alpha-L-rhamnosidase (Sphingomonas sanxanigenens DSM 19645 = NX02), 1068 residues
Amino acid sequence: MSGVSRRSLLQGAGVAGALVAAPRPALATEGDLKIVDLRAESLVDPIGLEAEGVRLSWRIEADARGVMQARCAIEAASSKALLEAGKADLWKAGEVLADKAVDIAWAGRPLRSRDVVYWRVTVQDSRGIRVTSPTARFEMGLIEPSDWTAKWVAVESERDAADRAAGLRWMRGDRTRDGSPRAFRLSFDVAAAGPATLFSIANFDSEQWLDGQPVDRGPKSQHRFGTEPIAVTTHQLAAGRHVLAVEVQDATGFNSPKIHEIACAAMVRLEGGGKPVRITSEGMRTAVKPGGGWQQPTFDDARWAAATPSANQQQAWPRDGAHLLRREFSIDKPVMRARLYATALGAYVAEINGKRVGDALMSPESSDFREAVLYQTHDVTAHVRKGANAIGAMVGEGWYGSYHAPAGRYAFGDPPLRFLAQLEIEHPDGTRTTITTDDRWQQSSSPITQAEIYHGEDYDARLEQPGWSSPGLSAPDWRRAAIGKTPPCRLRAQVSPPLRAVERLRAKTIRSFPGDRHVVDFGQNFAGWVHLQAKAEAGHTATLRFAEILTPEGMIDQANLRAARAACTYVFRGDPAGESYEPRFSYFGFRYVEVSGFGRAPTPDEVEGVVVTSDLPRSGWLLVDNPIVQGLWHNGFWSQRSNFFGVPTDCPQRDERLGWTGDANVFWDAAAFNMDVGAFTRRFMGDMRDGQGPRGEFPDYAPAGWRDLQLGASPGWADAGIILPWTVWQRYGDTGVVDRNWPAMKHYLAFILEQNPDLVWRNGRGYDYGDWVALDAKEPGDETTPKALIATAMWKRSADAMADMAKGSGRQPEAERYRALSADIGRAFAAAFVKPDGSVGNGSQCGYILALRFGLVPEPQRAAATRLLVADIKRRGGLLSTGFLGTPFSLDALADRGETKLVYDLLLRTAFPSWGYMIAKGATTIWERWNADMVDAAMNSYNHYALGAVSGFVYRRIAGIDPLAPGFQRFRFAPVLDGRVTRGGARYESVLGRIETKWQQTPGGFEAELTVPANARAELLLPAAAPDRISEGGLPLAKAAGVTVLGQAGDRVTLEIGSGRYRFQTRS
């Protein structure tokens, strides 16, 4: 901004200056100047915003060079007619001198629930050309809790409600864990012979016996991530006494450090005497080392201790199908506007008058439901009509009810599933009709008989109820819905793009195997599901099983999915016209799907891949004339697409799919090139804050289902709480993300300092994953690099980011404090880890890379440290030995020190380990491990973006789009060149406008084409012996408009250019 503070632009309504438009139609262009892409909170014409400091932005476009915004004025009104009449009743900001078109905080009349704001901006550019934008709009959601009059409706069957009322009563022994298994016995009497259902669960692996006979609970996953799921078995019991015996193992590993007891729960539902009888586990007895025969009903357990209630009373009931809800209502006035505000503890699909509402999928998305549930705002004006209407919802388990590793089912709160909806209909006479969830709704079962995030969905089309969401349905079997308990969480508007189907993939090959099994290959690993379109007789069942790899024989291989079933079944209703199906409440990470039950091979028209992701606007396209570099970017992009699924997950396929913060921390640089992650980051930072510990530690993953596992702040993981906001501020100039997260970020850094006053991070390091999956590690978290070294380097990086953000957001005293902290950490690091000969830590590559990249090696030792790093890479045969925290910074560290050839050696390598090796092995996404094709399935994802974070380097330092100032107000074009790659470039849709680079090395020199958006400037470092060896558009630099020579260093000439299109040529 020129000569004014950020807030001076944001003064309230006042006398307009010369720039404010007179009443007239909004202009889209004046000469070659245009104002485009008006946004609120990074979104185009959003609805349902929160009141927390709405920020506006726009872009200006012009063909001329060097165009900058010089003045601007904003007008906002409560209707489009008022705005176009020049009556800005919400905000009329006077003319200001300002080159800023982003991060404009609302400073008009305070915004209230449901406010609709129409706004426009008038701009004068540096040439004196003036233009007024088209009108944009945004709309507020329900800001105050009192705005909600809807009640939460319970979603469950009558039988499940009765089971829940009886409860899973967790019981424990009389002492804490000592490594020994613990035995439990429950004796109960059956009055009348008949069927019985047994529910049993334990917090560690367990075995059950009923009347001395082992209970077959089905296959177990050898590598399950998390607690054992509840087992449900059916039995025929005679009248008389019966005994359930349970043995629970002690365990070690990720899930166990803060579980201080061995516990289990059981319930038996007896149905032999008419009305079901439920027997709970309160009468259990328990012992350690019980002796032989203790599982038998004749064993005397009188000397055993009575089990006592456990602190854990999680109600992890078995997975269920989806349920239907509906209500009819009548509207006696014309409809002007209608909004549906809805959410669920579970997931929902809403319909009004037989039509689906919106195209968002699996809403609400994952969140910490103990703290907040996201609600969605839908424009349903076209759905509602005067007269008879009906509203309905199909509600499934979603992320609330499904198994959530490692905590299990209902990790965020107890059942039942619940649904909340508030339909508000505005009429031309100014009145409003409100239809809410209450006890007037009805409930029924649905065709979805089972649905769960990890395991898949079962759908029986014979159970469909045509017209269930339309008025006039005859519904004698539907029952009145019950009002559920209001959860303690707050309602938070979803203000990031939802999950949507963004692409459809056609099968590349279909291969048949004996047993009516047919393997479909879509040619690309992705997240989503299959669209099934086929004909079959009623009752015929098709089964779809998903996988990302194949066995050597060509069958699907689900071993690396661990406990995730990853399957769907569809029972046909027998429609002669054909039937179609897509899952609603589950998703999969896969390239291959096995189709069985057809009796023949399906055709490509019958099975179509549906790519599902958080529908973020795409912002980056890379084009480098080398298949390995281009393939690295392609694989990273598809891993991002697969794992940006409401939150940034680690993997989309196995029984995990968690928002691991370490992966996000290192990948956000690349992510913000590929897609506009502004709104997505703001949404995820809400989850990070919700999961922040009381001492300030950010979580290892968010949402965190099992908070008791938080032992501290894991370096490189917890730092995402600072690096994500920093990245968004850098890429989009958004200080709002800084302001909203500042208290949480301060709290985090204060925690580290309190634990480590000597400024070497040795204490409070949580799970301390280190350079995860480094090449030399036998186990993923082995200390191949000193973990205190890694932690201190990450602390220094976060302190630097805080100093930058403090300065950029007007917090100068804190900027100075964090800059001083950074310097102090640097000195402590050098004293602890850098030796006089330049060696760092234990000599690992990761240690050198982090120390060099983060400025932790004193100047006298930098050259020696660089030589030692290079020597280690070459000693190993020209390969990286780094993992999640070292790899992302490796190429930058080498390029910073002029090791260009080695950068390209690593990028272009195709032998193991390398990105090229993955590509040579057919990878279409990034692997979790360098050696994914060589290790077992315990932790082995083929769709994991962390090791692909170097694609950010490729954008910045090969394509040549390297940001130097927040919001790309200034960027650098200085591609790292090597003769093995002769052409490169990228297109990036920045917050200011399109940036495009194209370059090629020629026999006679170097050529570059650049597009710079208005309001931005670029610094170019071109390979040339002198400025007179460079021309632009065929003209010498002295005659080229808008080009300034800044100087020369070595074989590079530095130029500066403003907005416009340029073509440079250099002669050798």
Observations:
- The domain at 499-614 is CATH 2.60.120.260 (Jelly Rolls).
